[in-house]
Amino acid sequence: MRYRLAFAALSLVVAGPALALDLPARKPGLWEVNITFVGSRIPPHTVRECIDAETDKLMNSNFGGAVGQVCSKQELTRSGATLTIDSICIINGATTTSHAVVTGSFDSSYSVDVHSTREGGPPLPGALNAGPSTHMTVAANWLGPCQPGQRPGDMIMGNGITMNILDLQKRMPPQR
Questions:
Q1: What is the pLDDT of residues 100-147, one digit of tens each?
Q2: Domain, as residue range, for 57
Q3: DSSP strand E in the chain: where?
Q4: Residue 146 forms part of a structural domain
């Protein structure tokens, strides 16, 4: 379980800078998000997310905008249906430079291809690879309405554990 929680946190750290901008809202309901670290020892990971407009905005802003406070650069470029995001952020003492390309539809299916380079700071949990560069892909598909018993903000991990982003946000220390 510790490994899965570390992976979830790692995914947010690496993907967060690339996804922290004001992206189009995803269609409310249940999304399946497949995350792969290319060339890594970490296996692919699947998360199902039950969202509404509020929780999607919160997930997009990476827990209420914390990423915006640590990024010296965040640029979003649109070319047709393709979004390109370039960012430079300092997270946990490391400078992370990311380039992400987002394609698809936020109503049905989209993908994200993220290349990041990290300088400084402590090693990442799970030691992705020997070098400072990472390549992550995200493939997301809308599955339909949230299932009975699910509530907006629920993130159902591949091992069946459910965490709710609203509950996690309440546990975070206040931002200064």
A1: 999 999 999 999 999 999 888 877 665 545 567 889 999 999 999 999
A2: 2-171
A3: 29-37, 45-51, 71-79, 82-91, 94-105, 109-119, 133-144, 154-157, 162-164
A4: yes
